[in-house]
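Bumping my old thread because nobody answered last time. Still need a sequence for this structure:
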């Protein structure tokens, strides 16, 4: 008897029992989900790295999908692009001298967004020597938390670690206007009795774009429900087995695909009382700059909820037809979604990985900080996901049926929020 009941429930999202389920299964199709995520995670997108031709190609594709769906641009934007600028700061002319001898450039890396000139005897500078493969991360983390300027000396055995740090450092950092911790890394030298270090910086103004489409609300146009996910990824990274493209199929082409499919779904239904905003965030991987900017362009008091969708490509630890919600205990967003899924096989659960602090590690954080019930929906088993942030995060590792089922579940679970029947409780604002 129990087996028969389970089998009946498991077919709800594929063999619908109601008009609502018929709509969601008919309008959100697995073959279109496959097409969209395949396009976003293809090699010719070059991993969608920020400030690369690949992310521009991805942006144009998402714009095209929004246009075909019939979405309107957000007021104040140039088309679907919500463009803003950030300053990238690169260290230049770095010089390090130990006991009167200049250190070769290829053995120096600098992390800073301000120029400096150090001398021995400065008590605000902490010198740290790293020698052990097993403990250097913990030792470096402790030093960084000291808040001091750091001179970090890597033993020759840590040359690979130093190279990765140097490769990142030469690209510079995106400045948020606040001085970054100044760190000088050097490789394979003896700890000096006396040292000097100096560096200049070069600033470059660069543009970034969120892609935003809107379906105006019928009866509550000034109340907004936002569906979002980030479309950037890591780009070209260290090769693994001859492959250097970090395709980001799960992270977060899967979430971006969901945003596109939900936009098409709700536009075809054309019955939303509240205004729906669909946004593909940029620059999540380098600091969440896209969602941070978006949060400044909306009145948080008018945003009823944010459905942030991040990594839904594989079954969750709870099995098929399930996903988890970060910050579940912070509002009644989760219980509302659960109620709307009663009678289906799909279930939402609280975040099973609280130690990962996922609530503040994705694009929901910017709006949650100002009181919006902004939560991330995910299925990823992140503590054991061996493909996360590697070149192996490809479409071939994902379960498209699982992605489709999760998108359909989000569509069904969001309907009373979209209709204006339910309004999630607010999240306490973060204090400045």
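Sorry it took so long. Here it is:
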């Amino acid at each position: 008897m129990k087996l028969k009941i389970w089998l009946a429930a498991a077919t709800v999202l594929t063999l619908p029992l109601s008009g609502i389920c018929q709509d969601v299964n008919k309008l959100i199709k697995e073959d279109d989900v496959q097409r969209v995520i395949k396009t976003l995670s293809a090699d010719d997108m070059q991993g969608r790295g920020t400030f690369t031709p690949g992310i521009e190609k991805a942006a144009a594709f998402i714009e095209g999908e929004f246009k075909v769906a019939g979405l309107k641009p957000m007021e104040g934007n140039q088309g679907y692009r919500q463009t803003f600028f950030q300053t990238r700061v690169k260290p230049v002319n770095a010089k390090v001298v130990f006991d009167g001898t200049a250190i070769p450039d290829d053995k120096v890396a600098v992390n800073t967004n301000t120029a400096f000139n150090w001398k021995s005897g400065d008590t605000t500078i902490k010198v740290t020597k790293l020698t052990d493969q097993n403990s250097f991360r913990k030792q470096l983390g402790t030093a960084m938390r000291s808040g001091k300027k750091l001179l970090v000396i890597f033993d020759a055995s840590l040359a690979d670690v130093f190279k990765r740090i140097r490769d990142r450092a030469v690209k510079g950092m995106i400045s948020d206007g606040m001085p970054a911790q100044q760190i000088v890394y050097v490789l394979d030298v003896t700890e000096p009795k006396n040292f000097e270090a100096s560096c200049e910086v070069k600033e470059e103004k660069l543009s970034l774009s969120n892609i935003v489409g809107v379906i105006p609300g019928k009866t509550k146009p000034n109340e907004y429900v936002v569906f979002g996910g980030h479309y950037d990824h890591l780009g070209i990274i260290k090769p693994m087995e001859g492959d250097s493209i970090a395709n980001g199929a799960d992270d977060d082409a899967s979430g971006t695909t969901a945003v596109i499919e939900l936009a098409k779904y709700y536009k075809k239904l054309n019955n939303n009382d509240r205004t729906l905003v669909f946004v593909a965030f940029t620059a999540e991987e380098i600091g969440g700059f896209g969602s941070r900017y978006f949060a400044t362009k909306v009145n948080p008091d008018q945003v009823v909820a944010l459905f942030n969708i991040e990594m839904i490509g594989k079954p969750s630890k709870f099995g098929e037809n399930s996903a988890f919600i970060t910050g579940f205990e912070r509002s009644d967003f989760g219980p509302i979604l659960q109620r709307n899924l009663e009678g289906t096989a799909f279930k939402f659960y609280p975040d099973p990985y609280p130690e990962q602090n996922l609530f503040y590690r994705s694009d929901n954080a910017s709006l949650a900080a100002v009181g919006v019930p902004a939560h991330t929906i995910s299925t990823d088993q992140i503590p054991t996901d061996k493909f996360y942030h590697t070149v192996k995060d490809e479409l071939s590792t994902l379960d498209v049926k699982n992605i489709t089922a999760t998108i359909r579940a989000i569509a069904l679970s969001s309907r009373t929020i979209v209709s204006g029947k339910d309004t999630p409780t607010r999240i306490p604002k973060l204090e400045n």
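DSSP finds twelve helices and 18 strands in the chain. Let me know if any region looks off to you.
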